[in-house]
Hints:
Blueprint: H1 14-22, E1 29-31, H2 38-42, H3 50-54, E2 57-58, E3 64-65, H4 68-76, H5 81-84, H6 90-102, H7 108-121, H8 132-145, H9 151-157, E4 160-164, H10 174-181, E5 188-190, E6 192-193, H11 196-199, H12 206-217, H13 224-239, E7 245-250, H14 260-271, H15 278-299, E8 302-307, E9 309-310, H16 315-321, E10 329-330, H17 336-348, E11 355-359, H18 365-371, E12 384-386, H19 396-409, H20 429-447, H21 455-473
Parallel strand pairs: 1-4, 4-5, 6-7, 7-8, 8-11, 11-12
Antiparallel strand pairs: 2-3, 9-10
Helix pairs in contact: 1-20, 4-6, 7-20, 12-13, 13-15, 14-15, 18-19, 19-20
Amino acid sequence: MKAFMDQDFLLETETAKHLFHDYAEKMPLVDYHCHLNPKEIYEDRRFDNMVEVWLGGENPDGTFAGDHYKWRLMRSNGVEEDYITGNKPPYERFLKFAETLEMAVGNPMYHWCHLELQQFFGVYEPLTPESAPRIWEICNEKLRNDPDMTARGLIRKANVAFIGTTDDPVDDLRYHELIAADPTVSVVVSPSFRPDKGVNIHKAGWKEYVEKLSAVVGKELPTFADLLAALETRLDYFCARGCKISDHGLDYVPFREYACEEINAIYQKALAGAAVTTEEAEAFQTAVLRHLGKAYAQRNVVMQIHYSCLRNNNQRIFDAQGLDTGVDAIAQNTCGGNVAKLLSALDMENLCPKTILYSLNPVDNAQLGSLIGCFQTAQIPGKIQHGSAWWFNDNKTGMIDQMISLGNLGLLGNFVGMLTDSRSFLSYARHDYFRRILCNLIGTWVENGEYPNTESSLQKIIEGISYRNAVRYFDL
């Protein structure tokens, strides 16, 4: 029997151990898509206890922030909401999470949490209701007193070279500017352009958002052309502050042919407060995505597209707590043809940007793996990427399936690798988890005689997927 999560955790062959310990483990991290708060990085936040850094809860403004992965698990264990996102004493909330984690056999959260305990706190004991009091004290003492356990310290401990946050076009990016001007910040923190609220004309709050955008750019936006100009103005503002990446979170990827005057009429209709039809919304979204795609290509900004999430399914919890509180699920969409049409339309004008595609539905792996090969180009290895296993798929099985699919249908060696997609400063352990799975997968192929044991080639592939491909791809 193997020891519990020892140094060779998930590494089943000697080749896998060599690839991980000699190559992958040493590489810095490029966390190109996350939801960390740049204010907390600049102010070098110190967390008072493990609940603050693990579970989060209600903010002073009434919104909720924290790890909705953990919240879902606790609800599945029958824990009352007051212990999950409420105001119960932190220690009681921690005990409830310990009770839940003990039952999470087979869930990646079990491994992530214990990797975090090991790497950041030196705790190698499994978290159970019995060990929870000891672990609570050990971790809290470090969080409160260790000079290296602040937000920036945790980033340094994890050897992070680059962080891509998620930012709205109307954000002033004040804290990104302060971080960039502060020589004591050792990591590059870059804003990422996330214009969903301006794209999703059919969703609540769109009209109010256009009014916010208008105020930020300092001019009225009476026409669709004015909206596009305002978004480009903000994109330039982001690029001047280090933006390398954009991101679009879509229910599904639309593509509908349109005439320019038709889009302006739809825009006017929505500005007047009238509801738009599904067909009108899709035409509008298509027009915005095509325009922004070209703008990204002209500025060497990578376009990320995330889709197939069925959001806000529990109306009661959504009404009480809002977005990203653990009531989302995998959707089933058949929009691969629309993805192809969007990329083809951009390619026809020679303005298809570097693009990373993520579907939350793993059924789409083979479709994406085959589709990206249709739009690759010279001079940019892996220009169109099948993104890392995302959200409900960033578990051992999901990561293996995504990489096998990419290997079967494309060039796994050009993959830009893992991201955290997280709001927690401890989540960098997920990169370690991914790298172990990567090295075990390739190590197994080597030991099975499916790939030669050529040291220079293996080093290039492992270091590339772990770090170097992302540095090249995002022009870091």
